[in-house]
Design brief:
The protein is mainly α and about 90 residues long. It has helices at about 1-10, 15-35, 40-65, 75-85. Helices cover about 75% and strands about 0% of the residues.
């Protein structure tokens, strides 16, 4: 499925990209079942991690009187990596 998605991305075929992306998501859900992992729980956990890390970025920037819109991608990437080390 990933190879099919890559081909459509290379061709910039928006309709096919949506279709193949959906197929990839479906395949991942089925793989989770095979691994005996709850895919919804895994996704909720990933979203929770994202929210926590992004909140860290916002807080760190706010401490310097800035917003995410004021930061470069490199700055935000560095803060994201810092956030990974916060318990």
């Amino acid at each position: 499925e990933m190879g099919e998605l890559r081909r459509e991305v290379a061709e910039d075929n928006r309709e096919k990209i949506r279709e193949e992306f959906g197929d990839l998501l479906f395949a991942m859900v089925n793989y989770a079942r095979f691994l005996r992992v709850d895919p919804e729980e895994s996704l909720r956990n990933a979203v929770g991690k994202f929210k926590k890390r992004f909140a860290y970025i916002e807080s760190a920037l706010k401490a310097g009187g800035r917003r995410p819109a004021d930061a470069t991608l490199a700055e935000m990437d560095a803060l994201w990596n810092d956030a990974k080390n916060v318990p």
